Fold this protein.
Amino acid sequence: MIFGHIAQPNPCPLPKAIEKALEFLRTTDFAKLPPGVVEIDGRNIYAQIIDMHTRPTLENRPEVHRRYLDIQYLAWGEEHIGVAIDRGTNSISESFLAERDILFYHQMENESRIEMTPGSYAIFFPQDVHRPGCNKTKETPIRKVVVKVAVSALN
């Protein structure tokens, strides 16, 4: 996992596909876009613009992806995201890996939490279990952008 703020320069070179995704986040006015999908580089890199409300932590299921990494960016609002390393010992709730590249767990071991404020982003790799959309203090409307970057595009 990599955590940062979009206003800060990257401390080291990242794969070009990730740089392209971060540049999209830096240069897009998300107040002018409706919710939905925006293609950045076909199915290699695309963004999902989502308007939602945060929920209590235990109402959100931990998730992982295998073919894409997630760059979760908070455009406005506040949330926290639970995160842990996937050691393969979490109990599977539902698997949609073939259809939607998402696997849900009932819970996750050794969960830490990161605080998201506008402009924050977190890059979750296939080994990173994450539980997005959790209340920081109370239920809050948020706009988040999830940029999906194909693992195959990282080479």
Observations:
- The CA atoms of residues 81 and 114 lie 5 Å apart.
- The chain is about 10% helix and 45% strand.
